[in-house]
Specification:
The protein is mostly helical and 427 residues long. 71% of the residues lie in helices and 1% in strands. The chain is built from 17 helices and two strands. Helix 8 packs antiparallel against helix 9, helix 10 packs antiparallel against helix 11 and helix 11 (276-287) packs across helix 13 (331-339).
Length: 427
């Protein structure tokens, strides 16, 4: 929490100082400031969902902010705005665009604004003072372009570090995997944001403000496409969730078992450093880990497969893998489902996690206050051959954290599309 307060405090001081400077000196190039402010506001209004990354949630607003921070000439005429004015315009525009999101309570707006202020402030401080002093006047086209791309790259790295740090403070997930996930995102929409920001800044030097609508339109279309893609992924996830509920409807497993195993498996996977596609495979496999029970003639009492003989567990796992393959889900998910009953030394990490978390949920079902501790002790005793020691210890860490105390009750009453407040799924 100290790091979180430090980041928020640094952003607040930067914003307050910039606003004070602008109020004292006045606003330079008001037409340009108004145009960029409108562009950033539109980008923020189009922001969607609970995405942790400001780059993915509002690419148009991010590109407009970076372009304004690195804006040099305007149609051949040097601009005079300062780094403080850049931060102020971006902050005011972002706040205006965030009003609907704040009202609806949909996104972590404070973290989003802190990242935006600090990253834009970094780019503006690196560029605007030197440009206003004429340092870059004699730079040719290729050198000037390379300068902008270098500053954009450094700014993108700064934003990735800030995003990973804020996510680490909020979730206590390991910082390294979070940073790798953010850096991986720079190769996708992040590169489009940086390229658009650079192109708009360079184009404005020739054609002026006409460059904004011309070059921001493609990124707006990309943003709409990403939004539709996110909707398709959400629908796909709901389809898998419906398949996972088939075992509950058939009476093979207790109500909410698949959801609890999936939520807790994701938390353990995060703790062990899984990111991105690995977490997606883990989540889908955890949701469908018991689907093989639908093929049984005689159902397992209470769906407790962890208490069955090893041969029977493997048979159910293979049946489940066969069902998963027929659904058209990624083959990696089927592999995890098939191998969840193998000796842990031969299992992929996702299968180790699903096996341990499934056993924990089965052992704590219907038990009293001592049930979770007793279940963990039984899992630790089983690390000689059944459960991976590192997974069991990770499970214990997750349960001992602030979210662990709330795990069981919320997970039973919330739907899969509305994760329990004790657990945060990946984006």
């Amino acid at each position: 929490m100290i790091l979180l307060r430090f980041i928020h405090g640094a952003a607040a001081l930067t914003a307050a100082g910039s606003l004070a400077v602008v109020l004292w000196t006045g606003l330079e190039d008001r037409g340009v400031a108004l145009a960029f402010g409108a562009l950033i506001t539109v980008g923020e209004l189009a922001r969607w969902g609970d995405a942790r990354s400001a780059r993915q949630a509002a690419p148009l607003g991010a590109a407009g902010s970076l372009s304004y921070a690195l804006l040099g000439p305007d149609a051949g005429r040097p601009t005079q705005h300062s780094a403080a004015q850049v931060v102020t315009v971006v902050l005011v525009a972002a706040l205006l665009g965030a009003v609907p999101h704040i009202w609806a309570g949909r996104t972590p707006t404070v973290d989003h604004l802190a990242r935006r202020v600090l990253t834009v402030g970094f780019a503006a401080v690196c560029f605007q003072p030197l440009f206003n002093r004429g340092v870059f006047t004699a730079w040719g086209g290729p050198a000037y372009t390379l300068l902008l791309l270098t500053l954009l790259g450094l700014t993108a790295l700064c934003g990735a570090v800030l995003a990973a740090a804020l996510a680490h403070c909020r979730t206590r997930w390991p910082f390294g995997p979070l940073l790798r996930e953010e850096l991986r995102g720079l190769l996708g929409i992040g590169s489009a944001v940086c390229a658009t920001g650079a192109v708009m800044a360079l184009a404005m030097a020739v054609v002026g403000l006409w460059a904004l609508p011309v070059f921001c339109l493609p990124l707006l279309l990309v943003q709409l496409s990403l939004r539709r893609y996110a909707a398709v992924r959400a629908t796909y996830r709901q389809t898998i969730a419906s398949l996972a509920r088939a075992t509950e409807i058939a009476g093979c497993t207790p109500a909410g078992h698949a959801h609890r195993v999936a939520a807790l498996s994701l938390a353990v996977g995060r703790d062990l450093g899984l990111t991105g596609p690995e977490l997606t495979v883990l989540e889908y496999a955890a949701l469908m880990h018991d689907i093989g029970q639908l093929s049984l003639v005689d159902p397992v009492p209470a769906g407790a497969t962890a208490a069955l003989p090893a041969a029977e567990q493997r048979r159910i796992a293979l049946l489940g893998g066969a069902v998963v393959r027929q659904t058209g889900v990624d083959a990696a998910v089927a592999v995890v489902v098939e191998r969840q009953a193998d000796p842990y030394a031969e299992q992929p990490l996702a299968a180790r996690i699903v096996r341990a978390v499934n056993a924990y949920d089965e052992k704590t079902l219907g038990t009293g206050p001592e049930g979770p501790l007793r279940a963990l002790e039984e899992l630790r005793l089983g690390t000689a051959g059944d459960y991976a020691p590192e997974v069991v210890e990770s499970l214990a860490r997750v349960l001992a954290g602030p979210r662990g105390a709330r795990e069981r009750v919320p997970a039973r009453r919330t739907g899969l599309s509305d994760p329990a407040p004790g657990w945060v799924t990946h984006g």
